[in-house]
Specification:
Elements: H1 3-26, E1 31-33, E2 36-41, H2 45-55, H3 57-74, H4 80-102, H5 109-136, H6 138-152, H7 159-195, H8 205-211
Antiparallel strand pairs: 1-2
Helix pairs in contact: 1-2, 1-3, 2-3, 2-7, 3-4, 4-5, 5-6, 5-7, 6-7
Amino acid sequence: MSMHHRLSLLISAASIFGALASILAILPLSIPYPPITYLKFDLAEIPVMIALLCFGPISGMGSALIYWGILLWRGEFSPIGPSMKFLAVFSMLMGLWIGAKIFRGSRLTLCLSFILGVFLRILSMSAMNYLIAYLLFPGFMESAARNISLVLGINVSGELSCLIIVLIFTAIFNLIHSILSIVPSVVIVKYISSKKLTPYLKRTWYRIVFEEG
């Protein structure tokens, strides 16, 4: 395949999967996270992850950018909500990509890349929650702390205690969401790759990096 055709394929994949992610985000399919109800689990990250695992980082990052752009237009609490969602997805993709480069050739490449992706997501979202929910909009942190108190039946009081408990439960949310995004995507891509449905998917990025090394 020529460089021009390869680039066209990557851009097309980014556009298709970014649009699909946006549709899934806009549809009422999300499930609130009980301890912090403004955080929600959704299916929208799966198409972005599939774009990365099938076609590589250009399509993965491109689909994340398209997803972000559409959410800025149609998403809730724009631009802050969509931007935080983009940062969560982008940092996870970056972690997987960097991990794949660092640990390539190891039998634990996928596992270590997953851990790095989750770590970068939790780190970036902890920093953003500190900035947004603690410094700029403390009402979000207070609301989240009250909800956590009700769900767990404990008393959370004081700014530092509220901040710590909110960051802990936000990290747990991002860990769970990462698993829900990455594991189904890997299963789908492995199935697609094994069936060789099109010539372009005979050797997915996942197969080249994580299986062939």
